[in-house]
Amino acid sequence: MSGWSADNPDDARPATTGWNDAPPIEPPAAWAMPEAPTEVALDRGAPAGTDPMVHGTSQADEAHRWDASPERPAPPTLPVPLAAMTFTDIVDGAWGIIKARPRTVFAIIAMILLPTEIAAAWLTQGGSSFFDLSSSVVDSNLSGAPVLGGWGVILAAMLQNLSLFFLGGAIARLVSSWYAGGDMSARAAVGASLRRAPALIGAFAVLVPVKLAALATCGLALPFVVPLLLVTAPAIVIEDLGPIAGPLRSLRLTRRRYWPCVGVLALSLIIELTVNLALSVVPTLIAAMAPGPLAPAVAAAGTVFSAFVTAPFVVGVCVLLYLDLRVRTEGLDLELDATDAFARAA
Fold this sequence. Notes:
Elements: H1 38-41, H2 58-67, H3 87-100, H4 102-124, H5 150-179, H6 186-195, H7 197-215, H8 222-225, H9 232-239, H10 245-255, H11 258-289, H12 295-330, H13 332-345
């Protein structure tokens, strides 16, 4: 099991008193706390109304100004307890992430997905669609007259895939702050993900040939390969890993519980497709009745609206699956409880 050792007093509590871009010195598989002061971030039982993120640091002050509220809200209710999770716990918890901080979650989605969708719409010139879990590498719904020909469609699909990596990293950072007893603003969560951009982009580049090889089997290998890579983005951002270490970390975690990961992927896929279908009915009808020039814009707006609902659900499933795997295989919940006890006793 990774984490701090009780035999060494220096390990019982990190020596740093604040958080910056440099991660604390700890084993590669340790739980990396969000950008919050160490003393407060470790106190997962902080009284309601206290903000572990605000400790006199410039970053916390910036996040406070971003929220533009006279009083910082209490830490949100956890979407699911930090323990071994069932399929239902993970699915319900993914929706619970949205309900816990809807404004923050949707602000994160807007900051990451809107620029992506605008760029994808330009690359495909009227054929814009958000990547969903079922298409994995190339979205077959992209159509129209792309400005770069077939390459425009491919670039748009890859850009949309990459945006999920950044979205997964931002949501993972946000949710990890909740389990550490704190909270984050949307801009702080997105900033934490963007700081890991080289690793996320590098991991994406590493995984594209793997997915293409799986796709070359007429897609038959894809459902068996994708579950091994589901927690790459959360692992990179939370544990501060590199472009190679991130996918390897995902592989080590998921292979121990491979078939449950396949089941989680299948269940989330069914839910995502069902929600997408339900949300696309009205925009499709409006687009059918709209004048010719407006029809593509209405259809694209409906696609973006669906993405605002299903994207946080998909990445939320991956984040909670990451936590579940670490709880089951590494005792993450016990590690954090021990860390909390050491922090209180110090």
